Amino acid sequence: MDVEKLKAILAALQGSEVTRLDWTNGQERLTLRLGHPPAPVTALHAVAAPASAAASLPTPPQVTPVAAPALSPALAPAAGDKTFTVNSPFVGTFYRSASPDNPPFVEVGQVVKKGQVLCIVEAMKLMNEIEAEQPGRLLEVLVQNGSPVEYGESLFRFEPV
Fold it and tell me: What is the pTM of this model?
């Protein structure tokens, strides 16, 4: 694609409400995202302010804490349980193998080494290999192949070796 075509596309999108454009033509592929990505969520730290400054600050909204959902008894670790889980670092789609024709990266009962690929989570058309952070024996696969997963969702349960 030449620069003039790209400039024309950007100019056409400027006045519209389009925030993302994906375009493919043969071997050429273009992805445009207009605007700024959402700001990362950061922790707020309280800072003491002089009394005169406190009077001019707006009152923050009330926030009601929400309890985390309880694990089903089948997934909840028993007291004294030494198992650990590998969780999804992204929102995406879970795949147990590199392609439908390939065998799964890991099977129940298999001992894995630190750094061994366990699965793939596809996020925004990128295939992200999820690796074991510590060695262990796979006890359970907690997600069906091809299923959507949320950030922090448990994918596998292991026992240490």
Answer: 0.51
